[in-house]
Design brief:
Blueprint: H1 3-17, E1 29-33, E2 39-43, H2 50-59, E3 74-78, H3 81-94, E4 101-114, E5 139-147, E6 157-162, H4 166-176, H5 181-188, E7 202-208, E8 215-219, E9 223-226, E10 242-253
Length: about 260
């Protein structure tokens, strides 16, 4: 496909999103209490027309790609501003205050598909993670995941807390991104594969089951990961795979 054709297709993709209705006007939001005073907020039947988003992902399947800048174990399709604005508006209106934030500074969103088999995972994908790309103490990250697949067996989201000191855990995370698999496994005793239960380094504190058209929103500073118990079913077909719409919101912390 020529560059001109690619640009034309991208323009049509972005234009089509302006016709999409997004969130229901009166959402029902439930709070899941987590240890240490944390929360995960759950919104079922979040989108007006979730099937349109699945069809969109199928149509744009060729534009999903592996992102080198993060440890996501699959393919991503960055969403244009038209989608991110809707996500941010919903977050600002219904959930920002509950998560202890007072102003959204920036945000971005993407569709995502888990696709990697367990033997393809790097050590940093064997452990849970936090969304922490801000260094200013007055800022925080909120994250959202919207499940766009109908089979709950493809996996929801797990939350963890560290069992070791902050220093030890930080070293583990650092080494997961610099050491090869055998060296990392020997050093830390963590087996290759998706993390689904507690181990010597992380205690699982909660699990949110997947449900079609369910949105969850949580503090990105919590350790978390997808609950992948059937890795052989992680495929690159948006109509059959673990398709999600993910949002990330950098916010100013509320005073106090």
């Amino acid at each position: 496909m020529t560059l001109a054709a690619q640009c034309c297709r991208l323009a049509r993709f972005q234009a089509s999103l302006h016709t999409f209705a997004m969130f229901r006007t009166h959402p029902r939001i439930e709070r899941m209490a987590l240890p240490d005073g944390a929360s995960c907020y759950i919104v079922d039947d979040a989108l007006d027309e979730p099937q349109r988003w699945v069809r969109l992902a199928v149509r744009e399947q060729a534009r999903f790609e592996r992102a080198a800048h993060n440890a996501y174990p699959g393919l991503e399709l960055r969403m244009p501003a038209a989608v991110t604005v809707h996500l941010e508006d919903f977050f600002n209106q219904h959930l920002r205050t509950a998560l202890g934030a007072r102003r959204t500074l920036r945000s971005h969103s993407r569709m995502a598909l888990v696709t990697l088999a367990e033997h393809e995972l790097q050590p940093r994908q064997w452990i849970c993670h936090r969304d922490r790309w801000v260094s200013e103490p007055e800022q925080c990250i909120a994250a959202s995941v919207l499940y766009l697949f109908e089979d709950p067996a493809l996996g929801g989201t797990n939350f963890f807390r560290a069992r070791r000191s902050a220093t030890e855990t930080a070293q583990l995370v650092h080494d997961s991104g610099t050491e090869d698999g055998p060296a990392f496994a020997a050093r830390y005793g963590i087996r290759p594969g998706y993390l689904t239960e507690s181990n010597d380094w992380f205690e699982k504190i909660a699990s949110v089951p997947a449900r079609y058209n369910r949105l969850i929103v949580y503090d990105g500073d919590l350790y978390h990961c997808a609950d992948i118990r059937a890795p052989e079913r992680m495929v690159a077909d948006p109509a059959q795979g673990r398709l999600t719409l993910n949002g990330f919101f950098t916010c100013r912390r509320a005073a106090g």
